Structures are given as C-alpha cells and as structure tokens.
Amino acid sequence: MKGYSYPGKSPVKQKVDPDAPGTKGKPGYEPGVKSTDYLTKTPVGPVATKKRPMITSEDEEQAYENAQNDYDTDNPTKAQLAQAMKDLKKSKDDIPR
After folding, report:
1. pLDDT tens digits for 33-72?
2. Within 13 Å, how many C-alpha atoms sit on residue 77's CB side?
3. What's the rounded Cα separation, in Å, for the pair 91 and 66?
4. What phi and psi, each to the nearest 5 degrees, are found at residue 11?
5. Does 51 reside within a domain?
6. How are the residues of the chain apportioned to helix, strand and coil, as percentages rounded to the nearest 5?
7. For residue 61, is it within any domain?
8. What is the rounded CA–CA span in Å between residue 58 and residue 63?
9. Which residues constitute the domain of residue 80?
10. DSSP string covering 53-92
C-alpha cells in the first residue's frame, strides 16, 4: 500500500484553520477545556441563588387540615388535597429567605 489511502483530503494537504486555538506560548492560544471545569464552576444568576423550600410531612398534614376546613369535610378528595398542597407550596415560596 502506497501513501495515504483514506478517502478525502490528506492531512498534509489540508489548510490550517485560522480560528484554531494556536500553539502554547504564542498569541491566540486558548487552553483546552476539561469536562471537570463544567462540574466545578458554581452557577450564577437568580435560579442558582434561590432554593425551593422542602415540603415536609408536617406541611402535608397542614394541607390536609386546610382541605378539611376549607371544604368542611372529614375526607377531602384528591383534587381538594392537591389544591391545598398547591396553595401551601405557593405560600412557602412567597416567604423570603
């Protein structure tokens, strides 16, 4: 087998990309990015700083009692409990931390 047999252009004959990162120590050099860099950097912005409060079993009991009181029944339906939980989550989100 003589020479380069892979279909396409030979790497020797290909033109150099002008936007390539360059050579270490020369102007225009950009070091490679490791996958761990993405994991170790802390996120910024409003989403990163605001943590949602956890819903505890006490909160679920409170929602159940609220549903009982709001609908004047001993056994609220699933829809009534869901609405009570939604209201409770909304009230917990409104509390500044």
Report:
1. 777 766 666 666 666 666 667 888 898 899 999 899 988 8
2. 3
3. 13
4. -60, -25
5. no
6. 45, 0, 55
7. yes
8. 9
9. 56-97
10. PPPPHHHHHHHHHHHHHHHT-SS--HHHHHHHHHHHHHHH
